[in-house]
Design goal:
mainly beta, Protocatechuate 3,4-Dioxygenase, subunit A, 5-stranded mixed sheet, 3 helices, 24% strand, binds fe (ii) ion, oxidoreductase, Dioxygenase, dioxygenase, Intradiol_dOase_C, membrane
Length: 285
């Protein structure tokens, strides 16, 4: 696990306009959280996320609308590995580093929380090194029925050429993959990293000797406020050995629509996750 030469400092999307975070973001989170816990009544969610907006004028938008920009994409960089383990906790016994919890929601453009979104995280360890031999600090998970996710990890270390960041791929069922990175506020290198985008800043606070961060993704997809099911009406299935509701493991082979696919990541299949739709899970052979 030797630090390898980073090569992520090329031309990325660059530092975009400071989009700021409006009340809409807070309200989206509160609405989503309210489905499971009465956070809306207490304002706890809004308070937790308000720090991100400190010093900025907040628009008094009293409701969620569909005017928010989708989460911007970023370069993948050289350290992604497919087939990460299914897990929400990347911390193992003896792991060095400051404990970090990242939580939030994934929304479609119309503010509807998206369940079943694949989130695949990878990051450097406390010393700024990526594990290219194994899967330390790599893991994927799916948003729950409220569109929420939680990741247990550590604050990633710095390595030459980059500011502090966490990589992630996000993919709603049947939709394209969003590859992006999450950033930490107050990092000196945020000012010099050509890839850094303030729209991707997490809200981070100290908590119990560690840190808690929040970030809400907005995917460029139409969420279905009715059922959360794929919007395509059922048609004659293309057929094949693939089927929803099955547990597949890496290496499994299926056919679908006349093509053969190999499973890249263990998962339970579901409608909308047909192999052609989820390149993060299935590779065509
Ligand atoms: Fe990186």
């Amino acid at each position: 696990m030797t630090p390898t030469t980073p090569d992520e400092s090329g031309t990325g999307p660059g530092a975009g306009a400071d989009r700021g975070i409006s009340r809409k973001t807070l309200l989206r989170a509160a609405v989503a959280a309210g489905a499971a816990v009465p956070l809306l009544a207490t304002g706890a969610v809004a308070l937790a996320r308000d720090a991100r907006s400190e010093g900025r004028s907040l628009t008094p938008t009293p409701f969620c609308d569909d005017g928010d920009d989708p989460t911007p994409d970023q370069i993948e960089g050289p350290y992604f590995k497919p087939n990460s383990p299914l897990r929400t906790n990347l911390v193992t016994p003896g792991t060095a580093g400051t404990r970090l919890t990242v939580s939030g929601y994934v929304f479609g453009r119309n503010c509807v929380p998206l369940p079943g979104v694949l989130l695949d995280f990878w990051q450097a360890d406390n010393a700024g090194a990526y594990d290219m031999a194994g899967y330390t600090f790599r893991g994927h998970q799916f948003t729950d029925t409220t569109g929420a996710f939680t990741l247990q990890t550590i604050v990633p270390g710095l390595y030459p050429g980059r500011t502090r960041h966490i990589h992630v791929k996000a993919q709603a069922p049947g939709e394209p993959v969003l590859t992006t990175q999450l950033y930490f506020p107050g990092e000196p290198r945020n000012n010099t990293d050509a890839i850094f985008d303030p729209a991707l800043l997490m809200n981070v606070r100290d908590a119990g000797g560690g840190k808690q961060a929040t970030f809400d993704f907005v995917l460029n997809v139409d969420g279905d406020p009715g059922t959360g099911e794929p919007t395509d009406p059922p048609t004659d299935p293309p057929g094949g050995t693939w089927a929803p509701g099955r547990s597949y493991t890496a290496g499994d082979r299926v056919t679908y629509g006349g093509a053969a696919y190999r499973c890249l990541q263990a998962h339970t299949s579901m409608a909308g996750w047909e192999p052609p739709n989820v390149p993060a899970l299935w590779r065509r052979e």
